[in-house]
Amino acid sequence: MTNFLSLRRLLTIIRKEAVQMRRDRITFAMMLGVPLMQLLLFGFAINNDPKGLPAALVAPAQDRYSRALVSALELTGYYRFTHPQVTAAEGERLIATGQVSFVVTVPSDFGRKVMRGEHPQILIEADATDPAVASGAIGTLGTVAAQALLRESGTEAEAEASAAQKLDVVVHRRYNPEGITQYNIVPGLLGVILQMTMVMMTAMALTREIERGTMENLLSMPVTPIEVMLGKVLPFFVVGAVQVMVVLTAAKTIFGVPFVGSLWLLMLGVLVFVMALVVLGYVFSTLARTQMQAMQLTFFYFLPSILLSGFMFPFRGMPTWAQWIGETLPLTHFLRLIRGVMLKGATLADIAQPLLTLTGFAVFFSLLALSRFRQTLD
Amino acid sequence: MTSPAIAVTELTKRFGSRTVVDRVSITVQPGEIVGFLGPNGSGKTTTIRMMCGLLTPDAGSGRVLGHDILRNQSAIKREVGYMTQRFSFYEDLTIAENLSFVAGVYGLPADAVSETLEDLGLTSRRAQLAGSLSGGWKQRLALAACIMHRPKLLMLDEPTAGVDPKARREFWDEIHARAATGLTVLVSTHYMDEAERCHRINYISYGKLISQGTVAEVIAAAGLVTVILRGGRTAEAQERLTGQPGVDQVAHWGSDLHVIGRDGPALRRAATAVAIATGARVIEAETSLEDVFIQLMGASTDNMP
Ligand SMILES: Nc1ncnc2c1ncn2[C@@H]1O[C@H](COP(=O)(O)OP(=O)(O)O)[C@@H](O)[C@H]1O
Ligand SMILES: [Mg+2]
Predict the structure, then answer these.
(1) How far is the CA of A143 from the centre of ligand 1 (A)?
(2) Fewest Cβ atoms nearer than 10 Å: which of A62, A65, A258, B91?
(3) Do B237 and B194 belong together in one domain?
(4) pLDDT digits (tens, 9 = 90+) for A243-287
């Protein structure tokens, strides 16, 4: 065993890497700064409720109730009725072409139902392809509409007041089968942040030694490929742990993302994901000859993994070929895992599939890296 | 145990279509200090790397400390101390951290580091970053680090390049002291005075080993005759001598002119004639190692590709 993996040598390499990591101020700052920056950038995008979004109104009756609703909605600032009087078909076309973000439909029997104190309904169709756009506007909807009705009814009739309480706002989020809300972004962001730092840093692992000329010395000593690999990737688990804490704390305190699942299950998922990431980065560093090349390889990988993993666009909404590519990316499986655990309270059995897939990635990348590692300078 | 420390035959290494090391055979006996000489780019580093398991030869075979250089590279790495041409310890680690790294990798006891620091006289500067050391100190640190695990064989690649004369002297004293205790040393250099401090030398040029033996043997094998022209109009004498039959090299040494060639009688005839014409005296002299190497270099450029 000592020929392939000696604990003493492994710890020696880990210690050396940790010291170097700590001394490299800029890189170290980046490892903690990047997640914070990304969180705030994306978080800002989430918090920044876009106002005055174009809306269309489908209200065949055009009675005082629907007028009251429209003005109340406009008062929230979210809605701007650019098309105040359209047919259902026109509304459909407007939202499909993206000319409006919302179509508000007030059925013709709305006024009658209000007066009778029955269950009045309005339908709001939201273009939820960009969840950040739709969420704020939708969130305020129910109360606004109900208050508008109350005000309108004034002292006239009890029935109308109770109708306001019974008001049923039906919301259809369109074009977004997974029903992404703002909560979906922060957990996803954890995956993206981890991926960015873990892969990029480990991609430098060997190329840095080569460029600084220290590789020759390292290789002339009795270190084995597996010791070098583990020694160089293991310190990043600590970095990853710090990033996870930062993101989860921010998710809870700043963005109020609910955490319904098990923390241990989440940690298990993160551990396996980070394992896959650091060895993937290490594979890049065995392929590249310079740090520049390692960087390029990393970015070549980032692009599809951000676009096709389900982070940016809903996975099931993508064309089949894109889904196939998506399946080959660790981030895709991690997103399923973390969204499952954080938002849906998934159990171990629920996330077994992504967990196993990520483990498979980690093993595959490790073998690839070890087969690529050159023990000589040839 | 009289088997050689190094015994390699016909080592060959190509980079692309260029043959950088061409059928080089070297034998080094235990306890010897062997010099490896040659101009820049002649293949010294490449040869050393093949012998310490860092490069795989394209052809040839051999043993280092009894281990096959093709099959048992890891055993060689454990037992050989290799000092790279360029300082290749971690500049962003302190002196002590670099040494502990080496100690950890070779599985040395914990006090090895403090002992080495003590030996080096660096205990007070243990927390200094290696990158901030001067050339001479870097070289001492590198040497200390590669003998920490008490190797039986040291391979030093131009260890004294860019080091001041006093530090060089101390370095060689250290090497000789170690060799006296049985350490075998192969050292590459292009300083002539250092070559003369070696028990034996190997001279390589454009990848080919063209001379080996003791300094005296190498000089004798070259078969050169040297005469000195002293006094007179030296500049004119040099001009007249250059290109004369029998004259291969004409070089200024202070106010003297060294005239060197393989054909003794022809050389002496030409030198005497010019000496008379320029008012100089002719003195018989010993051929120096440097003269030999310049001669060898001139000869081997002819069979360059
Ligand atoms: N990895 C390499 N790839 C291509 N050419 C190389 C490589 N290493 C060395 N060389 C070439 O081989 C020749 C010999 O180099 P080297 O062994 O370093 O010579 P020396 O140590 O005697 O100065 C040089 O011309 C150098 O450019
Ligand atoms: Mg060299």
Answers:
(1) 78
(2) A258
(3) no
(4) 898 888 887 887 777 777 888 999 999 999 999 999 999 999 999
Question: Rounded to whole angstroms, how far apart are CA atoms A279 and A51?
Answer: 44
Split into its structural domains, chain B has a count of: 2
Among candidates A11, A24, A217 on the partner chain, residue whose Cβ is nearest the Cβ of B88: A217
ipTM of model = 0.88
Amino acid at B261: G
Q: Using an 8 Å CB-CB cutoff, list chain A residues near B74.
A: 3, 222, 224, 375
Chain centroid to CA B290: 13
For A252-279, the DSSP string reads: HHTS-----S-HHHHHHHHHHHHHHHHH
Q: Which of B200, B219, B238 is the last residue of a domain?
A: B219
Residues in chain A within 8 Å Cβ distance of B88: 212-217
Cβ–Cβ contact B15 with A under 8 A = no
State in Å: Cα B34 to ligand 2 middle. Answer: 16
Residue contact A12–B90, C-beta within 8 A: no
CATH of the domain at B133: 3.40.50.300
**Cβ distance A259 to A176 under 8 Å?**
no
Residue B204 and residue B169 in one domain: yes
pLDDT for the residue numbered A378:
81
Examine the domain organization and report whether B212 and B272 are in the same domain: no
Percent of chain A with pLDDT over 90: 35
Q: In this structure, are B111 and B239 located in the same domain?
A: no
Can you tell me which residue has the tokens 């940016």?
A312
Q: Which residue of A has its CA nearest to B102?
A: A221
What distance in Å separates the CA atoms of residue A201 and residue A295, rounded to the nearest whole number?
A: 9
Same domain, B168 and B41: yes
Best mutation site among B20, B21, B50, B156 for ligand 1 pocket (most ligand atoms within 8 Å of CB): B20
Out of B173, B197, B219, pick the residue that ends a domain: B219
